[in-house]
Task: inverse folding
């Protein structure tokens, strides 16, 4: 059993409740008993970059998992023992499927088999940067159709405060079951850090907030023996606000260094060297780094959820909005730097061969969601560039809801490919890239990530952007 803080010891919670003789506690007692004995079936809705690692954490803690996804390609691949996420090995998937510990299905009627239902579905933005809760709503409706007494439902998708209570709870209540008595409802935000082997779904502290006391007991008991630590908070609203704060904090600080990058470039100062120097201060400073724009499923989106809910309350979040403007402007800044660098060599963007190196949103992951590479490719194509790309983790350019790009396949990162480019644009600083080789072969390399630092032939061949 993993060690936990004294505030969240599951056995104490379970034992004290089972012996309390509390009124109408039978349903909760039964669920807590199943969790204590690892006989509870865990249902995970959404088997993507959050849901599949979460399923893995519960399986490794001794639970059986029933996974749900509307994408039958995913469920069929899992059934064949195949992984579609780089840091989840296919060998592991095959082992747990053959051992009967993981089943995947697109049949949501089977939700009734789960004792715990964890919702890990997307929460994107609309074209007008308003929250798109359509996936949350449709999932809650699917759960409500088969909701039975004794089930715990936990929303893990990032969203604005009050979503669990004001959106999910009313839908589940249509079942005729009473929250806190017949079923239990909580919110616990995901905290995935893909590509970082130091952190997994099971060793990151888990914040848990619920709609009532009995739901909180159920949710804490659910997570405590699975996660390194559980951090109970007073309500689901606090847990929702916690997640938004974490990502807004990052977005604002990244915007600061992005703005400074543009300024320092004009002044002839290396922003990367400045950050390294500032890091030497042992207090009061945390390093954030500039880039070609924000990517991933959280930082580019979550602050706008908070801005939206602020407007509902008649308030403005000027700091957040400004940060969003700065971060959203970075792809345009990069395209400008590409144009300037090509122009200095007597070439316009139109007709130039530009190779984008890296389309994943961060280093060493196969996740392209919200990657700034898509905006860069779209903008360069509109300006008449001949654009290709290489990414060792993204073999084909996936369809993205906000971009209309032609089908593309990752090109081999060969000497012939690089020498045929007018510009190699480093967008994602993947570890497998040989930056000495890239700079040697490409006539011009534009580096948005400081990936070529230390390359011997950098002078005159590399432009920072």
Result:
């Amino acid at each position: 059993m993993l060690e936990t803080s004294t505030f969240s010891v599951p056995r104490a919670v379970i034992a004290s409740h089972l012996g309390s003789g509390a009124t109408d506690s039978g349903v909760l007692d039964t669920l807590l008993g199943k969790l204590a004995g690892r006989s509870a079936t865990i249902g995970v809705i959404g088997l993507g970059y959050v849901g599949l690692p979460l399923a893995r954490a519960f399986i490794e803690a001794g639970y059986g998992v029933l996974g749900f996804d509307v994408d039958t390609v995913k469920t069929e691949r899992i059934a064949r023992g195949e992984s579609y996420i780089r840091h989840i090995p296919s060998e592991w998937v095959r082992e747990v499927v053959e051992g009967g510990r993981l089943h995947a299905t697109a049949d949501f009627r089977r939700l009734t088999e789960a004792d715990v239902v964890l919702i890990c579905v997307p929460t994107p933005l609309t074209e007008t940067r308003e929250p798109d809760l359509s996936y949350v709503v449709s999932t809650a409706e699917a759960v409500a159709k088969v909701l039975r007494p004794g089930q715990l439902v936990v929303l893990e998708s990032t969203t604005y405060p009050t979503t669990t209570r004001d959106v999910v709870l009313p839908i589940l209540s249509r079942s005729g079951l009473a929250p806190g008595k017949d079923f239990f409802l909580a919110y616990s935000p995901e905290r995935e850090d893909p590509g970082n082997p130091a952190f997994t779904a099971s060793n990151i502290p888990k914040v848990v907030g619920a709609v009532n006391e009995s739901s909180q007991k159920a949710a804490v008991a659910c997570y405590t023996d699975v996660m390194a630590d559980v951090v109970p908070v007073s309500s689901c609203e606090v847990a929702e606000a916690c997640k938004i704060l974490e990502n807004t904090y990052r977005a604002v600080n990244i915007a600061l260094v992005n703005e400074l990058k543009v300024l320092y470039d004009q002044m002839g100062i290396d922003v990367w060297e400045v950050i390294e120097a500032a890091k030497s201060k042992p207090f009061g400073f945390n390093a954030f780094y500039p880039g070609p724009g924000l990517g991933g499923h959280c930082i580019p989106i979550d602050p706008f959820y908070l801005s939206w809910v602020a407007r509902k309350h008649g308030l403005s979040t000027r700091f957040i909005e400004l940060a969003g403007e700065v971060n959203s402007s970075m792809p345009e800044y990069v395209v400008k730097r590409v144009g300037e660098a090509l122009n200095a060599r007597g070439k316009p963007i139109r007709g130039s061969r530009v190779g984008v190196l890296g389309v994943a949103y961060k280093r060493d992951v196969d996740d392209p969601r919200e990657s700034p590479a898509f905006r860069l490719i779209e903008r360069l194509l509109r300006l008449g560039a001949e654009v290709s790309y290489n990414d060792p983790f993204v073999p084909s350019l996936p369809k993205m809801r906000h971009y209309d790009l032609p089908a593309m396949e990752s090109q081999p990162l060969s000497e012939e490919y690089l020498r045929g480019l007018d510009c190699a644009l480093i967008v994602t600083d993947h570890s497998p890239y040989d930056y000495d080789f890239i700079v040697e072969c490409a006539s011009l390399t534009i580096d948005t990530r400081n990936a070529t630092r230390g390359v011997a032939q950098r002078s005159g061949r590399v432009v920072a952007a």
